C-alpha cells in the first residue's frame, strides 16, 4: 500500500498472520524517499513484487517442511531456520538493490531538472535584457518618426516577452467560493448546528478581511482578525437576531467599556478556519495554513466555577419561581434531577418517557441517542461522548419527588418529551436554552455569584461521591462514579480498560443512593409558584 506522510511516500504491507513468526514482523514499512507520486508509484510496485516473492517463497518452504500454522520458528531445526534466514536475507538484498536503483534515478532526475531550471533561468535573463533593448528601440523609433506598423510589431514582441517573464499565477478559489466547497465536503452526519457554527465564523472573517483568493491571505490578515475578535464583548453571540458586524460590536464594547470575549472562544474560531485552510492545503490550492504556527490564546477561564455550598442551596430552596414560561414544577424537577444525578442540563431537558425504564427491577434513566423526528432534524441528539451514553439509576429521593409519575403521565398523554413546557430555542436549537437563561436570572437575583452556575450541580455530585472512600464503609469504586456521571475513566489498568466493560446496575444504584443533601433540600418543595407577576 502506498501511504503519504509528511516525510514523503512510504510502502506498507501487512505480513500474513501464518508467516509472521518466520519474517519476524507484523508488517513491512519502507520509506520511498520522495514526495512525488509519479516517482513513488513505480518504486512501490517493484517493492510489492519483491515482497510478494518473499511471501510465496516462505509459504512454499513451509509447505515443503509440512509445518502447520501454529509452529514456532525457534523450535525448527537449525538447517530449516537457516533456509528461512537465506530467503529473508535475499529479500533484504533485493530491496537494497531497488533503493540504490531508484536513488540513481532520483539523482538523474534531479540533475535533469537542475539543467532545465538553469536553461529556463538563462532564457529569462536573456528575455529580460531583450525587453530592455526593445523598449529603448521603441523610444528611438518614436524620435525618428518611424512607421506605425514597425512600432506596433515591436511593442507586440515586448508584450509577449513580458508575459513570459511574469510569474505564473497558481489556482486558488475565492474565500466565499471555498466556504461552499468546504461545507459541501463535510460528512452528512455532521450536525446542522456544527455547520452553522462554521458559517458564523466564516462570515466574521469575511467582514474583517474581505473576500479574496485563499493564497492571498497573509499572517497580517490573520493577526488583524485575531486582534478584532479579542475585542468582542463578552455578550457576543448571545442574541440571535443581532445583525451588527464585528467592527460595530468592537466599537460598542470600547465605548461602553464592556468585558471582552474569552481567549477560548477566539481559539475556537481559529480552529474552524484552520480546518478550512487545511482542506485546501492538501489540494495544493494554498501555500500554507496561515492559522497555525504559534498563535497564542489566553484560554484560562475568566470565572472559576465552583460547586453549590449548603448556604447557596438554602438560599434558593423554597424561593418563588418568577418565570411564567416554565412552570415551577418543571424547574424544581430539573434542578432536583441535576442535584442528585449530576446530569448535564441538555441531557435532562431532552428526557423522553421511554428514557425512564426499569432494569433488573431498578428504575433508571437511559442517557442515549435520539433519532430525529420526522420533518424535525434539530430533534436528533447524541450524548457528549461515548462515555456519556449511560444508565443512571433513579435514587429514592427522586422517586419520592414524583419523577416516575411524571414519566408515566407523559407516556399516557403521548408526549414526546418529559417536560412539555420547554422547547427548542437559541442558535443551536437546544431545549435547555430558555431554562438556562431563566435559572441564571433566578439565582443572580438571589445574590448568588457568577462562579456558581447550573452546571455546578454536577460538581456537587462528583465531589460528594469522591469524598466517600473506596475502602471505607459504603465505599464506591472510582470506575462506578465515572460510569454514573458519564466521565471517561481515569483508571487505565488492563483490568479496567479490557475486562471491565459494564458496571453492574446494583453498584450504580449504590452510587445513586450515596448522594445526600440536608433536609431543607426537598425537591417537592424546592421552588414555589410565583406569588405575583411583579418581578423581583
UniProtKB/TrEMBL annotation:
Domain Tyr recombinase: residue ranges: 303-513
A Pfam family matched in the record: Phage_integrase
Record keywords: DNA integration, DNA recombination, DNA-binding
A GO biological-process term: DNA integration
Gene3D superfamilies for this protein: 1.10.150.130, Intergrase catalytic core (1.10.443.10)
Entry annotated with the keyword DNA-binding: yes
Gene Ontology MF terms: DNA binding
UniProt entry tagged with the keyword DNA-binding: yes
PANTHER family given in the database record: INTEGRASE_RECOMBINASE PROTEIN MJ0367-RELATED (PTHR30349:SF41), PHAGE INTEGRASE-RELATED (PTHR30349)
Family designation: Belongs to the 'phage' integrase family.
Name of the molecule in the record: Integrase
